[in-house]
Every structure is written in C-alpha cells, then in structure tokens.
Amino acid sequence: MSSSPENGKSNDLNIVDQATTFFNSISNQLAGDQRGKLFGSIDNFINYDAKIGILGMTGAGKSSLCNALAGAQVAEVGMVDVCTRNPQIVPLAKKDHASLTLVDFPGIGANTDDWSEKDLLELYKDSLRYLDLFLWVLKGDDRTYYDNHLNICRHIFQQTEHRENIPVIFVISQIDKIDPARHWNTERIEPSQEQRKNIELKIKSVQHLFNLPRAQLCAISSRENYGLVELVYKIFTSLPNRPTTAISQSEIFGSTKFTTTSVNES
Ligand SMILES: Nc1nc2c(ncn2[C@@H]2O[C@H](COP(=O)(O)OP(=O)(O)OP(=O)(O)O)[C@@H](O)[C@H]2O)c(=O)[nH]1
Ligand SMILES: [Mg+2]
C-alpha cells in the first residue's frame, strides 16, 4: 500500500493551497447549502469523472457514509444483518467536465448467497483497474478486527500488477461510539475531551498498524455528520490528476452486478 502523495494531487501545492483556503472558508458541518457549495466546486480540483470506492468489512458503516455524503438515503443500511448485496453506484456531483461517483461495495465477511468471500475479494481486486480513489472504512469502536482486517486489506492493495500507487484514505467510522460514548457533546455535535483522547489513540494505532501517514487517515461519524468536511478535503486533495482508466463509466458500471441510485436530497 503506498501513500497518495506520489500519485495524487497532494503533490500539487496549488491544489492543496486552493483546497485549504476553500475549506477554511466553510463550516465543519456537511449540511444543506454547504453540500452544494462543496461538491459544486469539484471542477476546481479535477477535470474528469472520478470514481471513489467505499470498501471494508461488513458493518463498518460504508453505506451510512454514502448516505451522509449524499445527504439522502441512497444506500440501504443494515442495523442487524449484512446489508449491501451488490456494489451500488451513487452519483454525488456533476459539472460540465467533472463528476464524483461513489461505489458502495458489499462488505468483506458478509458471506451471502450473492458473494462468497473469494468472489468478493476478486470484486475488490478488480476495482483496482478502474477506481480513482479508495476509502477503506474501519469501525472505530471495534477492537478485534486487526489481524484479519490487515491481511485482507494488504492482500487487496498489494496488487501491483494493476497499479503502482493506489490512493487510499483510511476512514475510522462511527467515532460517536468510541468510549466514553455517552459523553458525546450533543449540543456542539462533537466528541467530548475524553473521547477526543481515545479517538486520537485509535488514529495512532491504525496509523501504526497499517503504516500510514497521518494525512491518509480520517475519523468520522456519519450518524452525527462529523468529520465529513475534512474527509471531502482529503478526497479532493488525494484524487489523481488523471483518471485511472480511459474506459467510460457506463462501460464499467453497465454490468448487471452494479446497481445505480440517484440522489434526491432529503
Ligand atoms: N452510532 C453510529 N452508528 C453507525 C454509524 N455509521 C453506521 N452506523 C451503524 O452501523 C450499522 C452498519 O452500517 P452500514 O452502513 O449498513 O454498514 P456497511 O459497512 O454498509 O455494512 P455492509 O453493507 O453489510 O457491508 C448500522 O446499524 C448503522 O446504523 C455512525 O456513524 N454512528
Ligand atoms: Mg452497506
């Protein structure tokens, strides 16, 4: 797994400066007008149709993240059982010469009738051919995933026959549940001081485990709409300058294994 800077726009100081100025001018909550302002600016950052994959173990919060970014219930969320059955295409933003599309993948470990673990790993590996950026989602309040998770993640991203440098952002999700969970500051919609300390410890432990630069990590809560603006900043500054493949979106997503949804803001 390599970091994005060699590959993505993080190398391009103008883009980073521009993004920093832009993001400093907006509030931290991704809501209402803000979403339009943010995604309406994509053509300042890219000039192609970017495809962003959301990958990770089942229950990590991938579909919830899609919904939070889209500001609408575009993806089904499973409260108890495995949920996403097929990769789902979520068009997030579109300008004349640029667009952002999310691909919400079924989670690893799901073992459904639709996908065996082997097929799912193949589906993930195949996505290295066409996705421009990956979000690998890890559940923030999980303690036991590490060994298996790490192996699977490495297995997928060390497919150098497809790609030299793979832009991946590791998203630590559901951080409102990090202990002491009941201390979440509901008024300010942010973690309490005690939670912040534990979130920082979690970030450091994932950073160490996956051997990542801090810039490739983000801590979010989709439920509380927290950390999403920072995540979008990282997405914009990590997307490569050029698309990964010249194959059109309709060709890639035309196959029956993908389902498409449209975003109607709620
Ligand atoms: N408290 C809290 N719960 C969350 C958050 N994000 C997701 N969840 C819950 O976590 C559970 C799983 O969420 P999903 O979004 O369906 O997870 P997934 O990764 O898409 O799961 P699969 O489709 O099975 O791979 C659901 O009960 C969600 O409500 C969050 O930010 N905070
Ligand atoms: Mg899902």
Structural overview:
- The chain has 266 residues and is of the alpha/beta class.
- It is 32% helix and 15% strand.
- It is built from eight helices and seven strands, in the order ααβαββαβαβαβααβ.
- It has a seven-stranded mixed beta sheet with strand order 6-5-4-1-3-2-7, sandwiched between helices.
- Strand 5 (168-173), helix 6 and strand 6 (217-219) form a beta-alpha-beta unit.
- Helix 1 packs antiparallel against helix 7.
- The longest helix is centred in the last third of the chain and has 18 residues, at 193-210.
- It is globular, with a radius of gyration of 17 Å.
- It starts with 12 loop residues before the first helix and ends in a 6-residue tail after the last strand.
- The relative contact order is 0.21.
- The structure holds guanosine-5'-triphosphate and magnesium ion.
- Guanosine-5'-triphosphate (GTP) is lined by residues 58-64, 77-79, 82-84, 106-107, 110, 173-174, 176-177, 221-223.
Structure summarized in a few sentences:
The protein has 266 residues and is an alpha/beta fold. Helices cover 32% and strands 15% of the residues.
The ligands found in this model are: guanosine-5'-triphosphate, magnesium ion
- Could you spell the SSE succession in H and E letters? HHEHEEHEHEHEHHE
Mean pLDDT: 84
Tell how many strands the DSSP assignment holds: 7
Computed over alpha carbons, the radius of gyration is 17 Å
Q: What kind of sheet is the major sheet?
A: 7 strands, mixed
> Any low-confidence stretches, pLDDT <50, length ≥5?
1-10
Strand content: 5-15%
How helical, in percent, are the residues?
A: 25-40%
What class do helices, strands and sheet pairing give? alpha/beta
Output the number of helix runs.
8
Rough outline: globular
Q: Main sheet: which strands, in order across?
A: 6-5-4-1-3-2-7
Distance between the termini: 37 Å
